[in-house]
Specification:
Blueprint: E1 2-7, H1 19-27, E2 30-37, H2 41-53, E3 57-61, H3 73-83, E4 88-97, H4 105-122, E5 126-131, H5 134-143, E6 151-153, H6 160-168, E7 171-175, H7 185-193, E8 199-201, H8 223-234, H9 238-253
Parallel strand pairs: 1-2, 2-3, 3-4, 4-5, 5-6, 6-7, 7-8
Bound molecules: zinc ion (2 copies).
One zinc ion (ZN) binds at residues 93, 129, 154-155.
Amino acid sequence: MLIDTHCHLDPEYFPEGADEMLGRARSAGVTGFVCIGVGSLAQTESALAIAQRRADVWATVGVHPHDAASFDPSLEAELLRCAAAPRVVAIGEIGLDFHYDHSPREQQAAVFRRFIALGRELKKPLVIHTRNAPSETLAILAEERASEVGGIIHCFSENKAFAAQALDLGFDLSFSGIVTFKRATDIQEVAAWAPADRILVETDSPYLAPVPLRGKRCEPAYVRHTAEFVAKLRGIALEELAQLTSQNAARRLGVAAVLN
Ligand SMILES: [Zn+2]
Ligand SMILES: [Zn+2]
């Protein structure tokens, strides 16, 4: 049994609806899904709706750094309301993306800080997106006392030095399909080395399908390929990797795989 700790299931990406796709995932042994609600209020509400409708889906609420420029007080009020819902197990994804720079960096940082505060207020863990901003991300996490609630570095794509600091700050490392890519040797090193009780797996669907499905639209069933790859790196069986990552997800997010 596996848990996909980070997937986007919006109709925008899956116009046919999520149920059949989640059925395929369940057939592949993936029995829990954390649906990330970012992009717009509509996407947040759609994540919340599926989490309320299905026992095997949970939601998160946040503002992606890409969208920081369009964050305003009226959206804030709506998101605060959504974030308090019991099916919302984490705040995120939030963070910094200095690769695409879709929003001005100061705005990314301000929104990031605001939502760390919200996570602390609601006592919910944080889901962190970070790209090309390793030291800035770690500095903000430390300054804002994110370790009070901890959380997850999602789609881990940094090196061992970053991983060590993130672990010290109370953040677990979640590996996506990127870890299976040939040139991802730094990430593979971390996936082999990280403590067994601090690792998770995810798809980040609809993006980043793992090898051998690279380039296809990614869906939660594919997390199995990532898990198989990480198990091999660590020299353990897929079943063991599945068990430990599911336990870690249960501990970190309060989600447990739903059996039927
Ligand atoms: Zn992300
Ligand atoms: Zn994401």
